[in-house]
Amino acid sequence: MQKLLPILCLFIAGIAIAQPQMVLMPYGFDPVEVQIPSISQEKFIELSKSWAAEFNRGQKGYDVSDVTSNSLTITAYKRNAFFYRNLGETFQYTIRYSMKLNSYGTYYKLVFTITDIYANDDVLINYKIPDYFSSSGQLKDGYSDIKPSLEKTVNYIAASHYSAIASYK
User: Fold this and answer.
1) Using only C-alpha atoms, what is the Rg of the chain?
2) Which residues in 76-100 are b (16+ Cβ under 10 Å) and which e?
3) Which of 23, 72, 93, 155 could in theory staple to 67 by disulfide, Cβ–Cβ 3.0 to 4.6 A?
């Protein structure tokens, strides 16, 4: 067991390095291209669907749509996806997101979009990601926690999907 832990740590570190980091911009997230072991497009679709079912267990559900021979879109919710603090109080938000995945054999393209933001008790709020930024592209005052907390969540989701694809043998 003691020998297994360092190997596991190296494996996780390798996965974290291989997955490009997604960075929050005023308009959302830029698409990323991710290198993977060569697998068929059919297997990529199958693994992505299986990942969606497993990853979203215990969440508000998910949907797989727009499935083609080399692409699909996964729409799901993530509780406590980001937060900010105001006057000592922490406000947590749930997001509804879509992941458009296009497979090209040895890599895939991931387009991550946040479609809706929900406050406590699943109340849809009118804010979208651009509303948290000023016209100069900087986070508005009081929202400095949003960028790191949302990037952490989105990169966790993307890395989890990558791990499911990359670990296929």
Assistant:
1) 17
2) bbbeebbebeeeeeeeebbbbbbbb
3) 72
CATH number for 13: 3.30.530.80
Q: What is the total count of domains within the chain? A: 1
Nearest to 149, CA basis, from 114, 123, 110, 124: 114
Task: Tell me the CA distances in angstroms from 148 to 31, 70, 144, one per residue in order.
Answer: 18, 32, 8
pLDDT tens, 6-52?
554 445 545 444 578 999 999 999 999 999 999 999 999 999 999 99
Range of the domain at 154: 4-166
- The pTM is what? 0.85
pLDDT one-digit tens code per residue, 103-161: 998 999 999 999 999 998 789 999 999 999 999 999 999 899 999 999 999 999 999 99
Contact indicator for 125, 114 with CB cutoff of 8 Å: no
